[in-house]
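I hope you will forgive my troubling you with a question about protein structure. The matter concerns a single protein, recorded as an amino acid sequence and a row of backbone structure tokens. Please examine both parts with care and let me know of anything in them that strikes you as inconsistent. Here, with my thanks, is the record as I have it:
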Amino acid sequence: MTTQDYLIDAVAPRQRVAVVAPSLEILGGQGVQAAALMAALQDEGFHVSFVPVNPRFPNALSWLRRIPYVRTVLNQVLYRWQLRQLQGVDVVHLFSASYWSFLLCQVPAIKAAQRYGKPVILNYHSGEADDHLRNWGTRVHPWLRMVDRIVVPSLYLQQVFARHGYSAQIIPNMVKLSQFHFRSRSPLRPVLLSVRNLESIYRVENTLSAYALLKKKLPKASLIVAGYGSQEAALKEQVRQQGLQDVSFAGRVEPADIAALYDRADIFINSSVVDNQPVSILEAFAAGLPVISTPTGDIEFMIQHEKTGLLVPPGNPDAIAEAVLWLLSHQAEAIQMATAARLEVEKYTWRNVRTEWEKLFSGAQS
């Protein structure tokens, strides 16, 4: 019996599932989604074990995290050792990114699952999938052909995988609506929020440039920038050089505190040029913030322009600033969009994705 047959025919409901993913020590979409899925599965009676791709170092060795290459080697040793846990489960659920993360994290887990005869569900989340699949050749395709199912959160990624010859099932990302306080922003204030990690693909510098334009017309405007990453110093320098006032960098915000952050703001802005299905946009919908975003990745399907948010061209701070001014001068329409977005986000709840996950884990054809 192949592992594919095993997945289809022999895995019983409420079975033992191993989730292999980043822990929340690496705060990002994958870790947040992995934690949400594990909690939901446990509530449904599944036996869930967690194998973090970033295992904690023993206290005596924690100082090695400051040495880049040594840190990677030790992480790999600890991670591969923990993959022994896959022997005792029925199915392996593998959260996947792209590029070197795929090689260092997903490939060892696929090898281990194959060695132990366990079926693998590869849950791929990276907005960089097209470049990864097009240019990484034998470093990606042989491994993708070994997994039993490919699951993606978005139509965008499903189309990417189809172009490269793979069938992928869509099960959307999740947001827990009860975590967020939905309120109508009336009156709508120029209190802007960015919740993306500070990496180049998210182009937070364009949000700052748009804010600089707005500040000339709206002296009382303010901007909260949440997240952390390699661009932090450069972004703070941009704020300093442009003399921007009322910009606060919130840094890393833990999941337990994220709802309060949204509640402080009135308009959500996203400037990304590479993306998939940002959880931050779903969170903004849940909290009632009108959303302005580039139509990158799956965002063009997530947001209906002028119905559930506003879409602006990538790399265009002027368009972002104009969109903010439009919302502020059309407050009734802004509230209508936020209300429609709150209804739209219902399909991203556990209640609406539960059946698909249960079918997948039980081996039934969806």
In short: The mean pLDDT is 92. Residues 177-347 form a domain with the Rossmann fold fold (CATH 3.40.50.2000). Residues 99-116 form the longest helix (18 residues). The longest strand covers residues 16-21.
